[in-house]
Automatic annotation (TrEMBL):
Gene3D superfamilies: Nucleoside Triphosphate Pyrophosphohydrolase
Needed cofactors: Mg(2+)
Protein name, per record: ADP-ribose pyrophosphatase
Species lineage: Bacteria, Bacillati, Bacillota, Bacilli, Bacillales
Source taxon at top rank: Bacteria
A Gene Ontology biological process term: nucleoside phosphate metabolic process
Amino acid sequence: MSDNNSGQNHPFYEATLETKPIFQGRMISLQVDTVRLPNGETATREIVRHPGAVAVIAIIDNKMLVVEQFRKALEKVQVEIPAGKLDAFEEPEAAAFRELEEETGYRAKNLVHLHSFSTSPGFAEEIVHLYYTDDLEKGEVQLDDEEFLTCEAISLDQAQDYIKQGRICDAKTLLAVYAWRMLVLTGTF
């Protein structure tokens, strides 16, 4: 396996020959790229462009703050950790502080960056920056006009039950629950 896993020098690199914009929305855009494959042939790649997002594992009194909201793409109500997209030119840490308070009404005194990960690298460029805090103070909920959710603090056992019930099924929240479980069991992430 190659040490260089990114960039134009990698043997699997796909050079972009043409980009065709398809859709420009409020949150995402879609483009179709024509690429040259490593064997010299061409192919198309449908790519969703997204500004990136943040998510926060927020622990208070040995419970994790979660929000419950309807997700149209799944046609169901989901329980998720507080999260949201980056605003234009916004630093991820600033967005994490903002989103946590907006959705939960709690303000973090500090945040620890745990990891940044891609959500669907086969077709989307979205990167989620995951943070942790257990140093919270009461703030003020400030939902967007189109945002309808409730916030609750759940135990680790409740979180694991929500996973079994399918109430938690998104990647960032699954990752958060498993990271929290590791912290509880080992004292570290």
